[in-house]
Amino acid sequence: MNYHWDWSVFSQLTITTVDRYWQWMLSGLALTVLIALLAWMFALALGVLLGIARTVPFRPARVVVGAYVEVFRNIPLLVQLFFWYYIAPVFLSLPWQAVINTAQPVLVQTVTAVLCLGLFTAARVCEQVRAGIEAQPKDQFSAALALGLKRRQAYRYVILPMAFRVILPPLTSEFLNVFKNTAVVLTIGLLELTAQSRQVGEFTGHIFEAFIVATLLYFLIAQTVSRLMGRLERRLTIPGESGGGR
User: Fold this and answer.
1) What is the domain count for the chain?
2) In this predicted structure, what is the pLDDT of residue 245?
3) Which H, E and C letters describe the chain, residue by residue?
């Protein structure tokens, strides 16, 4: 069986005769990037706070955050997505349920996707931040306190700036994971890049072309982010901390 390749399908009008198939692909890419960026900002902010909480002397805070990390890291992302979209709204008050039921479906799906990806990734960012903080010399924190800084000031001005330099590579990997994990949101009806690729393939009969283009778009963005973060990592390298440091 010979497959007939036809890349011109992307310039054809869609079944709605309003858009062209390449516009469907771009709209899916735009939604993917939007969800990834929003989820990452949420995950980074929450993950940093949780990572700090895992290193404070207050044991109850460490226990609570530890339980959060274990729950969100060990439950599959798809299961978490279904929970937030199908089950969690049932536990809300009736007014909130009414708001969700009357809201635009795409808005509800997008908020759910950002919330789910953000909470899932925050647990992973938390561990990266904790590792970065604990990698700092113990005397560094004591010296900051001895200089008159309060604990939160020591974290803000001394510990975290150094820790972020150490954990920049794993944080880059976590962002790329968020970007790739957006593909699961097609299961709740969002037409992100993977869903749009499948839709283009189904309507045109050229599934291979659609997914090849989607693969190239994923690869291009991932490579761009990796190279940009690689340059940033080299600029922020602590002298003496790597073999290439001067």
Assistant:
1) 1
2) 39
3) CCCCCCHHHHHCECCCCCCEHHHHHHHHHHHHHHHHHHHHHHHHHHHHHHHHHCCCCCHHHHHHHHHHHHHHHHCCHHHHHHHHHHHHHHHCCHHHHHHHHHCCHHHHHHHHHHHHHHHHHHHHHHHHHHHHHHCCCHHHHHHHHHCCCCHHHHHHHHHHHHHHHHHHHHHHHHHHHHHHHHHHHHHHCCCCHHHHHHHHHHHHCCHHHHHHHHHHHHHHHHHHHHHHHHHHHHHCCCCCCCCCCC
